[in-house]
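User: What would this chain look like folded?
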Amino acid sequence: MIRYQESLTPSWTFHLALLVVLPMGFGMLAPINIIAGYVAAVTFYAVSLVVFIVFAPRIIVTDSHFRAGRAVIERTLVGDTTVIEKPERNGALSDARTWKVIRAWIPRGLSIVVNDPNDPTPSWYVSTRNPEKLRDALRGI
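Assistant: Here's the prediction, encoded as structure tokens.
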């Protein structure tokens, strides 16, 4: 059973910023054909948008496992969790061995200690819009 699920898709402000690809696509083909320039602009924007949505990492907590992006860990190996706010993020990311699922448009995150002596990864850092809900799901609340 899924206890928590989130997709780290960009915010609506990012979609506005992505509009910068419109003039780029238009400028590539407009000197050759104005219609092709418009088609290229809309196509570039649509493809960029689909890529950011389809390839967005997912966070899933089930009864037995925790998945963040491509990594999966058993919930029995999940240790202490700490909610990380934007000003504290650099300190949480300083260890190069930490598994990181970071999205710049999501300022908050959760730091999760890994209690596996055979795993060289001491902790995970996961960007999330709802770190409290993710923490509660990992604790089984």
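The radius of gyration is 19 Å. If you want, I can go into more detail on any region.
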